[in-house]
């Protein structure tokens, strides 16, 4: 006669059943049905910026879960808080009035001087169907939503460019409010290789370690890419990588950054930036790196794509070594390589790296100063990784 199940076995079974129920319930809630009456309650003087995002397969393989992300804002006339902010910023940068009158400065400061609208209802059009997003825009004007699109609809509306499939969507409103008029959502498969990359001092020259230079490079000078990084990322893109750009820069800089990416040919990818609600003329808080914010965004990507492998690229100017080290220890089967651009100075010590990457295999991380040092690195194919893991060779 078989022994009755032990109490611990029953608890395990109950836990697994609960987990399965929660996953199916979350999936059910994400299913959003088309609504022909849905409409964004936006005004003619309000604008929407749409951020590039990603979609992933639904747990039951019935369709794709699309991430929708953007913000609602309105340009405001000259006012006293704006003048005070610009005066403080000019003093911190050592900027002349001539520099403040340039188109570069006016473009960069624009995102920090608009009025961000909370409480707005957002409807989006995907293909020929309209969906009302749950919830309203937050106080910082941002909205996020998920829409599950059945496979048959995705097959109809998805566009393919090279090896990349993506879906476009638009804000559904009485007025043309979106800039750009369409949002881009990249379809990312369960398996494959993804690159998580910082932006400042990793692909864009910023000098975050020096406050005055950082602010000047952000607001006064034309953006410039780090030599060799565009070619490297283009090579990895050709090898099948998807890209996710995770940075401590605020969302207010998205549009000039996206122009840099487009002009220089950096691969498309999802953007994950810092949310800031500007409420006073103190600009310093905008550029204080919040380590938890980057960790949260990276952890979400790793959890969303548990079967994908990740290469992480950052620099020594902020907390990238420490953040990536934590991720490598927590998700050792997913993080296959870490590259840190060493900027020199007091932060670039052997002790710091040893502490940041403790218990991380030495072959899994590498310091570099020039992109040319990474040109020989080819992204591992998923079959290569699977074979290595099966043979017990690790990553």
UniProtKB/TrEMBL annotation:
InterPro entries recorded: APP1_cat, HAD-like_sf, Mg2+_PAP
GO molecular function, one term: phosphatidate phosphatase activity
Organism of derivation: Blastopirellula marina
PANTHER family (alphabetical): FILAMENT ORGANIZATION PROTEIN APP1-LIKE, PUTATIVE (AFU_ORTHOLOGUE AFUA_1G06650)-RELATED (PTHR28208:SF1), PHOSPHATIDATE PHOSPHATASE APP1 (PTHR28208)
Record-annotated Phosphatidate phosphatase APP1 catalytic domain positions: 193-342
Domain of life from the UniProt record: Bacteria
Protein name: Phosphatidate phosphatase APP1 catalytic domain-containing protein
SUPFAM superfamilies xref list: HAD-like
Pfam families, per database record: APP1_cat
């Amino acid at each position: 006669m078989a022994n009755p199940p032990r109490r611990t076995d029953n608890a395990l079974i109950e836990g697994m059943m609960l987990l399965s129920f929660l996953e199916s319930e979350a999936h059910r809630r994400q299913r959003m049905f088309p609504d022909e009456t849905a409409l964004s309650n936006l005004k003619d003087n309000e604008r929407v910026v749409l951020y590039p995002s990603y979609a992933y397969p639904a747990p039951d393989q019935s369709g794709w879960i699309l991430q929708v992300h953007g913000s609602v804002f309105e340009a405001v006339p000259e006012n006293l808080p704006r003048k005070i902010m610009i005066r403080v910023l000019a003093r911190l940068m050592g900027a002349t009035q001539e520099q403040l009158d340039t188109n570069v400065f006016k473009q960069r400061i624009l995102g920090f001087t608009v009025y961000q609208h909370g409480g707005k209802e957002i409807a989006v059009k995907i293909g020929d169907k309209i969906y009302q997003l749950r919830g309203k825009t937050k106080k910082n004007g941002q909205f996020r939503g998920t829409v599950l699109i059945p496979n048959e609809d995705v097959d109809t509306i998805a566009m393919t460019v090279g090896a990349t499939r993506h879906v476009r969507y638009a804000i559904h409103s009485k007025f043309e409010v979106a800039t750009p008029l369409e949002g881009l959502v990249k379809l990312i498969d369960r398996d494959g290789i993804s690159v998580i990359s910082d932006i400042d001092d990793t692909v864009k020259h910023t000098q975050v370690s020096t406050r005055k230079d950082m602010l000047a490079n952000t607001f006064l000078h034309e953006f410039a890419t780090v030599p060799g990084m565009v070619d490297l990322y283009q090579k990895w893109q050709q090898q099948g990588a998807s890209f996710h750009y995770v940075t401590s820069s605020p969302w207010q800089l998205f549009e000039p950054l996206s122009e840099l990416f487009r002009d220089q040919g950096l691969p498309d990818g999802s953007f994950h930036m810092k949310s800031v609600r500007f409420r006073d003329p103190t600009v310093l808080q905008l550029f204080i790196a919040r380590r938890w914010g980057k960790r949260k965004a990276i952890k979400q990507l790793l959890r969303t794509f548990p079967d994908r492998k990740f290469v992480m690229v950052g620099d020594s100017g902020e907390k990238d070594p420490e953040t990536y080290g934590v991720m490598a220890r927590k998700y050792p089967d997913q993080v296959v390589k870490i590259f840190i651009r060493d900027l020199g100075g007091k932060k670039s010590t052997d002790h710091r790296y040893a502490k940041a990457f403790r218990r991380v295999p030495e072959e899994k991380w590498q310091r570099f100063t020039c992109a040319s040092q990474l040109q020989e690195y080819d992204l591992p194919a998923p079959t290569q990784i699977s074979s290595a893991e099966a043979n017990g060779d690790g990553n």
